[in-house]
């Protein structure tokens, strides 16, 4: 129970000293460093610290009545709200106690181990600063031990992070080189495609040409004529052999002095041969021409209307043809973009063009993949992973804690999850940033009829990564406390213990 200070004890606020203008005074509740601010002038007056226009007799300081708006006239009583009471705590650590707890009948040892906050004597508070100092020293030793171990572990993390960063730098350089090679490959593939398209467009009767059918028909006609020629040649050879035999026989049996039977027989055989072969006497020219049209292969009108046949480009140097091809392509694209020309319908293409397109597409795909990988590596390289890039070394490492109903897991630089005893994990958030001693995870799974889950991780120094606690202070907003060597600082030199008791 808090007890109100009695008026009888107010005179003790000055610790028994007389107020003399020439003699320094000591004001209760004020630190040694600030005592000079409470010295009266030659007339024994004093002004409020933040209102120098308000001047009071020094006797009204610590009179349990709040005269100054800032409460500076009551550092040793509970009269002014918001004021602070100084506890010297000799032999331990000095501290400030809210003035509302001064002379309230409770010994506030956790702040004023010397018991000076109950100076009015309502209760007797022993000076326990030696005990607190001993316990404090033990805790500080443990803290220093933890800091030393954590600092050593952190040094290893920093070294690992530096190695990872160097590896990223090397990978970026390699990717840039590969991208340059890939772009050269693209340029070469595009040039090869352009040449293939130009050469393809200069051919006579390319696939898709309206004259291709006529060309095939003419070829078939001449094939038939050639076949007829071969057959007729064979017939002529047979006839020639028969004629040779007849003539040979006639030459052997013929007598020029008179008309004998040998001549008659030869003449008769010749007549019979002629009568047995109705086609005898025909010439091959008549047979061949009957199988083929004697008109020209293509009319001038056909050639004029078909741009795929004997184009003028085929007579130009290759570099001129490439330039003309580029200009025609640009003109067509210009007209198509403005609706002045319909897009060319896809038609058959030569094997060389198809192969060139395949090579170009493969080169462009490889280039896109390399650039995407380069961008991801560059993003990782530029990311903020805390001082000395230390949290980079923790990538892929996860820690968890079983709270009974749920198991919570934090994966550094990645995600935070919650998993029940049955069912799959629920994502509490994706790694967002590190700011000071906190790590933030955002945009987790959406709560039913609520916001997306998120988590804040408060970190402090520890030899190993460990989750200390987890709570849900607001719906779908999670708060973790963890220890990690990444937050450890270099231990300060051990200070000598105070011995003022």
UniProtKB/TrEMBL annotation:
Per UniProt, the ranges with Basic and acidic residues bias are 356-371
Q: Which GO terms describe its cellular component?
A: glucosidase II complex
PANTHER family (alphabetical): GLUCOSIDASE 2 SUBUNIT BETA, N-LINKED OLIGOSACCHARIDE PROCESSING
Protein's UniProt name: Glucosidase 2 subunit beta
Q: Which residues form a coiled coil?
A: 158-199
| Xref: Pfam families | PRKCSH-like, PRKCSH_1
Q: Which SUPFAM superfamilies match?
A: Mannose 6-phosphate receptor domain
A biological process (GO) annotation for this entry?
N-glycan processing
Question: Which stretches are transmembrane?
Answer: none
Give the range the annotation lists for the signal sequence: 1-21
Is Protease among the key words of this record? Answer: no
Every MRH domain range: 396-490
**Which UniProt keywords are given for this protein, alphabetically ordered?**
Coiled coil, Disulfide bond, Endoplasmic reticulum, Signal
